[in-house]
Amino acid sequence: MTTASLRVLVLCIGLVIGVPSFHGPTKAVSNADNPTSATTQRYRLDSSQSKFIAHALRGGLLWFKGHDHLVAVREFSGEAQMTPDSITPASLEITAKAASMVETNSVFTDQQKQIIDKELREIVLQPDHYPDVSFRSTSVSGKPAGSNKYDLKIIGDLTLHGVTRLINIPTHVTITGNDLRAQGEFSVNRDDFKVKATSAVHGLVRVRNKIKFTFNIVGHLM
Question: What is the pTM of this model?
C-alpha cells in the first residue's frame, strides 16, 4: 500500500470513529457559539390588540353623586425584550400619545364623554405641551410561574406631564408562540406629576389623587 493510500485509509477511519483528522484540532463548542441557547427575544407592542386603562375614582364630599372615570389609552408603541430561559436580560419601553386618551365608562352619554375628553385635553393632560407619556425600565427581575409564564417586577422611569418619577410595575407575562402578553396594574399619585383634575358641584365632587392603571398588552416577536 502506498503512503498516499495509507493516509486516505487513516482519514476515513478517523471520520468514522470521531478521531480528529490531519487538518488540525477540532474547535470546542460553547454556549456562546450557540445563540439559541439563551437568546433575548424582542417584541413589538400592538396597541390595536391591547387594553390600557386609567381608573380615576370619584372623591369629595358628594362622591356618591359622581362616577368613576375609565380613560383608555388608544395609541401607544414600544418594545419589550426578554430572555425566556433566564428572564434577564429584559427591558420595556413604551410611549403613549396623551391626545389618544379618551373616556370609556358606559355610564356617561356620548355628549358627556365629549365634554370629559375636552377637559382631559385642556385641563388634565395638555397634550399640546406634553404630547407623550413614556416609560423606560431601569431593572427587571422575576421568576417562572408555569410553562412559558413569568411573574416580573419592572422598575423604571415614568414621564407624565413633563415630570419623571421612578415606579414599580408588577407584571404577569405569558408567551404563546410568537406573541407575548403582559398583564398587571400599578398606581400613581397625580400630584407627584403635577397633573390637575377636574371637579364638579363647586369642588364637592372631584377625582382622587391616586390613579390606578390596568393593562393587558400584546406584543409580537420581531
Answer: 0.76
